[in-house]
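pinned: reference chain
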Amino acid sequence: MAIVKYTNVSVYSSEVEGFKDNQSVTVDTETGKIIGVNDDVQAVDEVVDMDGKYMTPGIMNAHTHITSIPTYWWRDGEEDRHSNSREFNTMYAVKNMEDMINHGVTYIRNVGAPYDIDVEIREMQKKGFVKGPRVMASGQAFSITGGHGSDGGYEVDGVDEVIKGVRTALKNGVDNIKMMVTGGVLKNGETPDDIQFNMDEVKAAVREAHHKNKTVAAHVQGAEGVKEAVEAGVDTVEHAFNIDDETIAMMKEHGTTVVPTLNAMYAIYQYGEGTVPDWARKKVIVNIKKHFASIKKAAAAGIPIAMGTDAGTPYNGFESESAYEMQLYVDKADMTPAQAIDSATFNCARAMHVDNEFGSIEVGKYADFIVMNDNPVEDIKVFQRDNDVYQNGVRVHASRVVADVKEDKRVTEAAI
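pinned: its structure tokens
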């Protein structure tokens, strides 16, 4: 353990201020925290010249499913990418965690895991047994009986069952409550517009979670479902395919953050033909343009956007996909590269209520950052390259070749 000063580095400050050149960042690797930025700290154990490279906070992803397999296949008309085995799910979680940290993701909010595996992964990660980003765990998600996600979570109906379920989840150690408020794409027999939990049920979940200072994330896609979740007081709405002017006003009133997960839809659109069932792809085709338009509308209106990918859905994995999601915000939602960076740093930290210790390069915060050769404010795709990744002030992934450009080769068709 040592005091290390990283010098001669351009440090990302914010969308407004951009990068500040010729900075230094001093970290205490014992606590993992930053103790000086452009400081006069002299009693250091090591000085590292960063050669004028660019430093941003580590990527934060507010919507992952670490036990899931992003490759996709079906057998005899049934989904066959998940196993009921606790061991199977745990091993995939460990692998996915390592993939994420190697691609610059230093903090995640996992929003649904069978057997509350993410709670256990969080504790193992704290003890150093699992390499990967820090984990905000939600355990099993909540759905109505037979509703969206009901095959891997709590099935609850009515206010009393919701209260009992949420209290049980909090007892089991979750940091966040995930509510499946509407239907979705990857379950047959429902649509994104189907409202499943009613207002009283969602309010009950919010009340119980907030009583314990925990957050609530709501899977909502259709317009009326988004309004219901916002009015109920959830902290974040996930997906949000259809946001209108009334919803924008409500979000501003309630301080709601949107987690777009654009690539969850876009990856199915690009790669799912012939493997993802027609009924699922049809829902994507119907909703994808209005999804892009909704996030564009929300961002333009100043609604906070927190980056999340829905990692674990078809063709939407745990490697460069977080960085690619940021590119989609630029390409499809007309956000600037700096706004996309903020969505994956400051905004995520605020949405998860951890901005006192994460999300920016400031004294007192954890020294989780990415170091890259080029300026991502000029080209957001720089995040998709093989960059150096630091956690607790220590490099945990070294870029293999300085000039190795490993940008995601997927395209973003202008027509969509």
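why pinned: The CA atoms of residues 59 and 194 lie 33 Å apart. The chain has eleven helices and 19 strands.
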